Amino acid sequence: MTSVSTTTIVDVAWLRDAISASPSDVAVIEVTGDESHDGGAGVIPGSRSIHWKPLLWHDTRRELATARTLAGRLRDLGVGADTEVVLAGAPTQFAAYAIWVATVAGVADRLHYLDGGLAAWSAAGFGETSRAVLPAASTPPASTPPVSTLPAPTRPTPSHPRPSVVIDRAGVENAIGSASTGIVDLRSPQEFSGQRVSPETEIIDHGAQRHGRIPGARALHVAELLDDDTRILPVDQLRERVRAADLDSATDLVFYCRLSHRAALGWLIFDEVLGDSRVRVYDGSWTEWGSVVGAPIEL
């Protein structure tokens, strides 16, 4: 399967070649769900690994980092003024969330999303520790996904803050029952149906006080947009998924999940791959909605 490649999204073969050709010009940051990761060496050669929360949230408040704060944290992770930054998620949605936060803040220029994250890197056989020897660019291993036929990534134009890609709880409340706005739940079928409040990968079912979904929400599990190595599906298959979810008729789309990581990945796919700018991400997602006194739910 051909991997997606755009100005923002790069595949593992592109990253391998970039590291091999000029390692000082690219900074790889692995954004993980492991709270023990504090900026030390990661899996990909030369990378740094950090938990998503100290990178992307305010130190004490439940809100997104400002542009100044995020830029400083990236600098502390080795990002220079002219460095191309590749964000690799473990799992992959954490990198998409980082791209979304940076887009909201207005510091997304020179940031790239590694398609499939660490799962795709490992599946390609490119090494399991930061001390691994990279395969020569001319002789990739047999499991390497084919390089995209799309143009190689170029440096995006400087970004500006895009608060329009965020929606808060009041906005979601106003969207319920709207004929023009589609509310889309990107959680798993178990979460959507109310069996769980967190993905099955979580040992403890936690993240909200109540089970259920936002009234009127349509189901589009983010896994339906990815292949087995968590890489983004080709455009024609993505469009099929959008049609199946009955999203074509909506003027605006509100995406949510549990903490907005998977919703941010959905936003990235729609915005960057499909060229669909209808999406706003509910930053509080089910963690907020499912815990607010009086918020309506549907089972």
Automatic annotation (TrEMBL):
Location of the Rhodanese domain: 22-130, 212-298
UniProt keyword Transferase, yes or no: yes
GO molecular function terms listed in the Swiss-Prot or TrEMBL record: thiosulfate-cyanide sulfurtransferase activity
Feature: compositional bias, Low complexity: 135-152
Reactions accelerated catalytically: thiosulfate + hydrogen cyanide = thiocyanate + sulfite + 2 H(+)
Domain of life the protein comes from: Bacteria
InterPro entries in the cross-refs: Rhodanese-like_dom, Rhodanese-like_dom_sf, Thiosulfate_sulfurtransferase, Thiosulphate_STrfase_CS
Keyword Repeat: yes
Span list, region Disordered: 135-162
Keywords assigned: Repeat, Transferase
Stored Pfam families: Rhodanese
PANTHER family per record: THIOSULFATE SULFURTRANSFERASE
Identification of the protein by name: Sulfurtransferase
